[in-house]
Design a protein that fits this description.
With 439 residues, the protein is mainly alpha-helical. The protein contains 19 helices and five strands.
């Protein structure tokens, strides 16, 4: 509608101008090269305007003819680029769906239409990798690593391929080169960390953690896991050094990361015990018992009260009231009371445990109490309950759920570091080990 109105207005304006020129009188005289021309002024103006219009039309036509090949080439390139981008998109979809054959087909089509470039090369590399063609994938990743913008990603791809080929040296070298490009790369740092763990380079692994953990600020779960691994490394280094001062320094560093870590507190308490620093030993043991009760604390603390077992049980009961895990603390007090043949505290604390929360450990304690009270029927009933009840806490690896008799800084099954903890079976969630971890 707007175009029609515009056309009417232009036509009306032209008609008005022509009518005005026709109404004008006068003649123009032109003398040129011995010729004299007399013409109406209005006609002369009209011819000038017509000539100008003709020149403009001729110029437009000439430009169209001259640029026609470029316009054709541009349209061809546009269609080629559009088809190439479509092939890239389809290839990425096939890659996500796990269809390596279609992904490779689309990668070849994209490379043919778009030529060698970042996205076609990356699609071809990933498709070859998915299809198991490691040589082709390696060539593509090597090509990516030669360009400034894609060098990091090419090196990470090479790192993964070399690791899958069980070539730790070359995979670590690729990770080191990637770190020169991106010093905060979590992938490269994690890979190097596990290679250091494999070779038992504990100091180097700890240095890598110093660079890796700050990069996990936005990943709290991963950060917590690597902090536990740092504790495990500190524990290992504390065992390997010979000087008491060095042992203490490593254990204190680990304790700063987790105040409730049982194994670290027990190891530190034993160092104080050997150095006859009884007050420091009692302080660190009692604080540990309040944070996370464990039998190892009681075994060490009992030596400090060996001359008065009643005072020891009373002190233990007082600590249990302050404990953040009262149920576990009470169980330990019950066991210590039964061992010392002091039955009233054991009877009282056992009655406080709800029956639906009793573990096999609770039933075994009840059976022991019944035997000491010469109650064979009660002991038999408690033993039957123990057979059906869930197990209590134990040293378990949170990576593979392997049980160990005592704390180990390295899991004997999955070889993860610092993952063994004193926990309920129900609280252990098995996490898959990273593919970049161990061969």
């Amino acid at each position: 509608m707007i175009q029609i109105i515009r056309l009417i207005l232009v036509g009306g304006l032209v008609a008005l101008v022509v009518s005005w020129f026709n109404q004008q009188t006068g003649e123009s005289q032109i003398q040129w090269l011995g010729y004299e021309i007399q013409i109406s002024t209005s006609l002369l103006v009209g011819l000038v305007i017509a000539f100008a219009v003709f020149v403009m039309l001729f110029d437009r036509l000439w430009r169209l003819i001259r640029n026609w090949p470029k316009m054709m080439a541009h349209g061809w390139q546009y269609r080629r680029r559009t088809n190439g981008e479509r092939a890239l998109g389809l290839g990425l979809i096939a890659l996500a769906a796990g269809d390596s054959r279609s992904a490779q087909k689309q990668a070849r089509k994209a490379e043919k239409l778009l030529g060698r470039g970042l996205l076609p090369d990356l699609l071809a590399a990933q498709a070859a990798h998915l299809a198991g063609n490691k040589n082709a994938a390696r060539r593509y990743f090597a090509q990516l690593s030669k360009h400034k913008d894609t060098a990091y990603y090419g090196l990470i791809g090479i790192m993964n391929l070399q690791f899958q080929n069980n070539d730790s040296e070359k995979s670590r070298a690729a990770a080191q080169k990637a770190l020169h490009i991106q010093p905060d790369s979590v992938v490269a740092l994690t890979h190097i960390f596990w290679r250091e763990i494999e070779e038992k380079n504990w100091h180097n692994a700890l240095n890598i953690l110093g660079r890796l953990i700050p990069q996990l600020a936005n990943l709290p779960e991963q950060k917590h896991l690597f902090q536990r691994r740092e504790i495990g490394l500190c524990y290992i280094l504390g065992r390997e050094v010979s000087e008491v001062r060095d042992k203490t320094n490593w254990l204190e560093r680990a304790l700063k990361l987790d105040q409730s870590h049982i194994a670290v507190r027990v190891a530190l308490a034993r160092l104080y015990q050997k150095s006859e620093l009884t007050k420091q030993m009692i302080k660190i043991i009692e604080r540990g018992f309040i944070l996370k009760p464990h039998q190892d604390y009681i075994d060490i603390l009992r030596d400090a009260f060996s001359d008065n077992i009643g005072k020891f049980i009373a002190r233990l009961t007082k600590l249990a009231r302050q404990s953040e895990q009262k149920m576990d603390a009470n169980r330990l007090v019950i066991a210590a009371s039964l061992e010392a043949d002091i039955l009233p505290p054991a009877t009282s604390l056992l009655s406080e445990i709800p029956q639906n929360q009793m573990t096999n450990e609770d039933y075994l304690l009840a059976a022991e109490l019944a035997e000491k009270q010469i109650d064979p029927i009660g002991a038999k009933t408690a033993l039957q309950g123990a057979a059906r009840a869930p197990r209590g806490k134990a040293w378990r690896c949170s990576t593979c759920a392997t049980l160990t008799a005592q704390y180990e800084p390295i899991c004997p099954k999955c070889h993860d570091v610092g993952m063994i903890d004193w926990a309920d079976e129900s609280l252990v969630s098995i996490k898959p080990i990273s593919k970049l971890k161990l061969s």
